[in-house]
Design goal:
CATH topology of the largest domain: Rossmann fold
Strand order of the largest sheet: 7-8-9-3-10-11
Shape: elongated
Structural class: alpha+beta
Number of domains: 2
CATH superfamily of the largest domain: P-loop containing nucleotide triphosphate hydrolases
Helix content: 25-40%
CATH architecture of the largest domain: 3-Layer(aba) Sandwich
Number of strands: 21
Strand content: 35-45%
Largest sheet: 6 strands, mixed
Bound molecules: adenosine-5'-triphosphate, magnesium ion
Length: 374
């Protein structure tokens, strides 16, 4: 947490004509971090990355890199891309088809007027790292999509940039290759200790790669945090729904406690007390209807007779119900469950018990959940 700040956006805005794309955006990237900028199509991810690279100037606020202002309309400062020394790989392959792999990767060093023998060493080194050593003399057009992306990666890394900008670099690759490239990029980042900003609209990509996720919507930050925080503790309905499937259970507010805990009633029986981590404003009022959001994998289904014999689950919430329909789908069951208050939900349940339709069950999940207005 003590790593130095490498890049900072301070109240950055960007418009195209009348349309404001990025609004008062303030973010910070630390040295050595792997940050994913995640958000739906059109939210301003590419625009933000292009401003970092210097391919677009901002209209307001300022961008600071390595302690220096690199873009500030107010001060009339704009450092052009080639003076920023950042590595970048964008969605389209963007390698030069008329050059060999070697020539493509050597290009940034030639621009920097590096001596030939030094270039040779650097290019061979980075080609070995991305696994293309044997293909140095191939024409770029004779490569597969994944290999082309690796060339682009090598070319963006060969001059030892402090920061690597990746804009959906794998979106043209098939699922399997994407997975492989994901792992390679992660290993590469660890090995080189480089700072990476990775733009994607794929939550799995962001979750699996990033030390920190900056979740964007409509040109601003919706939430930022570690993948765990973003996934398990979404603070807005937008983040919650973007990050994966959630089961929403209806309940009523029975009490709002001083310590921030909330008691809810689900089936007209005893109130249960929840610890919520999301901001629910305005504060919920007694008697108001609400929704408890739980990730489906956090829910456990236990046969009633077993649940009653168990103890020591004070940390968990329990709701009673029964199995309405049960579908055997091979590795598990798909069940429609009816809770005592009549609410129904679909769940996948493991083959750990001999489940039957009509069976009484208990739903169990951790007390720490998020509660939302209906
Ligand atoms: N040069 C431009 N001129 C006008 N509008 C633009 C320009 N570039 C982008 N936009 C608009 O800005 C908005 C944000 O675009 P941007 O490319 O940053 O989105 P994104 O988050 O990268 O989306 P995606 O996931 O689809 O790549 C979009 O509505 C887009 O149409
Ligand atoms: Mg984009």
């Amino acid at each position: 947490m003590t790593a130095a700040s490498l890049l900072r956006f301070e109240h950055v805005s960007k418009s195209y004509g009348e349309t404001q794309i990025v609004k008062d955006l303030s973010i910070e990237i630390k040295d050595g971090e792997f940050v994913a900028i995640l958000g739906p199509s059109g939210c301003g991810k590419t625009t933000s990355l292009r401003m970092i690279a210097g391919l677009e100037p901002c209209n307001g606020g300022q961008i600071i890199y390595q302690g220096e202002v690199i873009d500030s309309p107010e001060r009339g400062v704009f450092v052009p891309p080639d003076k920023r020394g950042m590595g970048m790989v964008f969605q389209s392959y963007a390698i030069w088809p008329h050059m060999t792999v070697y020539e493509n990767v050597a290009y940034p060093l030639k621009l920097r007027r590096m001596p030939k023998d030094k270039i040779k060493l650097e290019v061979e080194n980075i080609l070995a790292i991305v696994g293309l050593k044997e293909m140095a003399d191939r024409q770029a057009t004779q490569l597969s999509g994944g290999q082309q992306q690796r060339v682009a990666l090598a070319r963006s890394l060969v001059f030892h940039p402090k920061i690597l900008l990746l804009d959906e670099p794998f979106s043209n690759l098939d699922a399997k290759l994407r997975e492989q490239m994901r792992i390679e990029v992660k290993l590469l980042q660890k090995r080189l200790g480089i700072t990476v900003i990775f733009v994607t609209h794929d939550q799995v990509e962001a979750l699996s790669l990033a030390d920190r996720i900056i979740m964007m919507s409509k040109g601003n930050v919706e939430q930022e945090g570690t993948p765990q925080e973003i996934y398990e503790r979404p603070r807005t309905p937008f983040v919650r729904d973007f990050m994966g499937k959630t089961i929403m259970l209806e309940a009523k507010i029975a009490d709002v406690h001083q310590n921030g805990q909330i008691s809810v009633v689900k089936d007209g029986k005893n109130p249960v007390t929840l610890t919520t981590f999301n901001h629910y404003f305005p504060l919920p009022r007694l008697g108001e209807r609400c929704l408890i959001a739980v990730r489906s994998e956090q829910i456990r289904v236990v046969p009633l007779e077993l649940a009653e014999a168990e103890s020591g689950h004070e940390q968990e919430l329990r709701f009673c119900g029964s199995i309405e329909t049960l579908l055997f789908i091979g590795d598990q069951y798909e069940a429609l469950i009816t809770l005592d208050d009549g609410e129904q939900l679909h769940l996948f349940i493991p083959k750990t018990h001999h489940w039957q339709e009509g069976q009484a069950i208990i739903l169990r999940f951790n007390r720490e959940v998020s509660v939302w207005p209906e």
